Amino acid sequence: MISGNKGGVGKSLFSLALASAFEMRGERFAIFDGDGRTGDVYAAFKRKTPARQGDFRDLRPESHLCRLDGQYEAQLHQLLSGSPNVIVNTPDGADTVLMKWFDVTLSHTEQANVDFRMVYLLSDRPDGLEILPELAQRFSFLYPVRNLHFGPPKLFSAFNQAYMPGFKVVLDMPALRGDEVRLLFDKSMYPAEVLRLKKSGTADGGERFAVHTLQRARILAWQRAINEIAWDMADNKEVPNLEFGKW
After folding, report:
1. Chain centroid offset of residue 26 CA
2. Does 188 map to a domain?
3. What's 56's DSSP letter?
4. pLDDT tens-digit profile of 152-185?
5. Is residue 29 part of a domain?
6. Please, which residues bridge with residue 89 across strands?
7. Which of 166, 208, 188, 231 is closest to 26 using CA atoms?
8. Under DSSP, is residue 4 helix (H, G, I), strand (E, B) or coil?
9. Backbone angles phi, psi at 93, to 5 degrees
10. Strand (E) or helix (H) holding 2
11. Distance between CA 23 and CA 193 in Å, rounded?
12. Is residue 91 within 8 Å of residue 34, measured between CB atoms?
């Protein structure tokens, strides 16, 4: 499950990269895009892999009831029954509104005997970091990811000083050039899909377009770096990522 400390932190891009990491080692995956504001993750995978879309923000803070409860649980159960890996993208910012959806997802993965990972994307700003202790109380396999698009690791000083000691592993997401990011989202494609193309491809609307050799090389190098951190995270099934006594 992918969340983050604020909007524009790179959740959608990481979702695309994580799916590509599974595909590039021959594993099936499914997608649930719970960010009704953009739907860009769903757009990249529809009609290509099992993918569903909803809007977690339909849940209001003043009510624990939501018309999407049953719909989401049924769709999640269906995705889990057909795919060993399900990637759930969430709206901007983790808060009490979204916490219910985190709990529901954890409950279903436990029932299906599926390992649960909470991935928390970070910018260099302190916004939203205060929820990390609450997340740590709920999810022992909580992985913070510093998005290096915002700068080198030392710039994440608010996180590094207050929260980094509480984790065994902190992941760093390398920066991808804006041209390549725009290619992925403008054409509604994910990295592994672009890398399968030879000289040209077809966008969702049937438009033909070329993938420049240099663009392809940059995406490949970036995805390989993502693969290393994603595979290590997925393969760790025994050791929680929280430091004992730090929370």
Report:
1. 19
2. no
3. G
4. 999 999 999 999 999 999 999 999 999 999 999 9
5. yes
6. 2, 33
7. 231
8. strand
9. 75, 130
10. strand 2-4
11. 9
12. yes
